[in-house]
Specification:
Blueprint lengths: L16 E3 L3 E2 L2 H11 L4 H4 L1 H5 L10 H16 L6 E12 L8 E13 L6 E11 L5 E12 L4 H11 L5
Antiparallel strand pairs: 1-4, 2-4, 3-6, 4-5, 5-6
Length: 170
């Protein structure tokens, strides 16, 4: 049985909707991100401070939410594995509501624009309207993300798929 390798460029269209799997934010996420970035703000690391804050509890780093939003999209789902070449950037990103320890986050994203690359005829740019939401459907973060896409299935995907199945009993 073959494993699907995701959508090809020809499958994509403006208005196409995606939703990521969920991921629950843990205390270890906050501590690990603080260590990685050096951002040990008490709002993220001190229950005493955070309990007295306007939020009443510790809040995840905004950039942690953005990082997880990115990972939950294309990398985790594999939906655009056949076409995704490179992440091009973020536009108009907003931190709308706090992310708390215990929140399960999901990413909803819609293809807002799909256009040919001006410099590379075999490539295109897909712009997504993105919303990071929690288990209650509250919007936590939102903005635009741009992805460079190949109009032909990527040879690297086929090579990786073949390498992953080499030597596996059929």
């Amino acid at each position: 049985m073959s494993t699907p390798l995701g959508y090809t460029y020809d499958d994509l269209h403006v208005g196409m909707r995606f939703r990521s799997p969920g991921r629950t934010i843990t205390d270890a996420d906050l501590v690990g991100f603080a260590g990685l970035t050096g951002d040990f703000s008490e709002l993220h690391t001190s229950d005493v401070y955070a309990d007295a804050s306007q939020f009443g509890q510790r809040v995840a780093h905004g950039m942690l939410g953005l990082a997880y939003a990115h990972g939950l999209m294309w990398a985790r789902t594999g939906e655009l594995r056949q076409t995704a070449i490179a992440f091009l950037g973020i536009g108009d990103w907003r931190f709308v509501n706090p992310i708390f320890v215990g929140d399960t986050i999901f990413v909803g994203y819609v293809i807002e624009e799909l256009r040919d690359s001006r410099s590379k005829p075999g490539q295109a740019i897909a712009t997504f309207d993105v919303q990071l939401v929690n288990q209650r459907g509250d919007i936590l973060q939102r903005g635009k993300k741009a992805l460079l896409c190949s109009k032909e299935p990527l040879a690297a995907v086929a090579a990786s798929h073949t390498a992953n199945t080499a030597g596996v009993a059929q």
